[in-house]
Amino acid sequence: MGRDTMALTETVNYIALMSDNIDRLGRSFTASTYGAFAGQLTPVLSGLLVLYLIFWGFRFWQGRGESSVIDIAFRLFRIAIIFSIATGWGPIQTVAYGVISGIPTAISSVMMNNIVNAGRGAMSQTTVERDLYDFYQIALLASARISAPAAITAVPAPTAKPQPADPDPSAKSGPDSKTTLPGDAVLSSLHSGIVWISAALFVGYAVFLMLFSKLALWVVLALAPGFIVMLLFQGVSRFFSGWLSVAIQTMLVPIFFYAFLSFFLLVIKEVVIALKISMDHGAVPGIKEIAPFVLICFSGLFLLAQIVPLSARMAGGAQKWLGDVLQGDAGRALSASLATRGNGGSMARTQASGPVLPSASSQGSPSSLSGMNDTLIRDIQDRNLAINRQTRNR
Q1: β strands within the chain, DSSP E
Q2: Domain regions of the chain by residue span
Q3: Does pTM top 0.70 for this prediction?
Q4: DSSP code string of 170-192
Q5: pLDDT tens for residues 65-107?
Q6: CA dihedral 229, 232, 235, 239 (to 10 degrees)
Q7: Sign of CA pseudo-dihedral 239, 240, 244, 250
């Protein structure tokens, strides 16, 4: 939407002003709220950490805990990280906050830099907010221009010449004294209302998405301490997965929002310019200009309505993987990988020399029978591993 055709009366861009206010308030809100929650939860988290270590040590003493040094080290490391993150706002939280809040802005900026508007260069968040504001202002001007003929037409009809006073006070005035409203005035009022309502629905939903994505991200990050500590316990760790899914979704919504809206505002530029030019020439917009404008308003509304479901689908898959990693599956996967490498070496030695059979002199004692059974079991496991590896390679 070029500056020459979109030049409007100089007024405050309240859409950009709301966006700037949200960004300014969000920076201090998240840090202060996060620190307040962490300070109040620190005694509770300390007690839960002690109970967690007691139960884990008891399970380890019973032989039901981790069997490898890697699993134990990963669990202790995870406990230390979770406790340090959930009990205060420090350098780690500041860096994480900057990364999480900056990712949507960085990705959307890269995408919009490749959406070029002829005559104005690449799109940006500022240009999107300005064009959205100009779009609504043009709709308001068009609605006022269309409704103007209705106000001019709706005037009282000419009255008859004055008559001598009628002594009978019950005499009624004739129908000529009533105010008339022609059909064209009603139609103009209807067109004016349709233009304003359609533009208000589209722009209102766009502003709602923009503000909601920012507000939701600040609130979700401020509630992080209570959900991060749930990673320590398997029974309530699903609540952390839900929180993580919402956080990822709120990061994806502004990315899709600015990308979709940048494309859409460029696509509908000709329709909006045609409506603006018709008003600049002093003409009243007719159905030829109104119908395409209403169509693009509803098209934009339905397009923006797909952003939240699309973000939810993408966030669902990402949070499952991240949740599994943070809940300890990474340590088990690393331990299993190292164990698989060790079994691969023993399998190679077994295949080269064949299965080791016990000597005949040792077959009679129970210890020799137990050793023979262990050897056979290991040989069977090594062969199964070899078969599985060959199947994966195929």
Answers
A1: 116-117, 121-122
A2: 14-154+184-326, 337-393
A3: no
A4: TPPP-GGGSB---HHHHHHHHHH
A5: 666 677 777 777 877 777 777 776 766 667 777 788 888 888 9
A6: 30
A7: positive
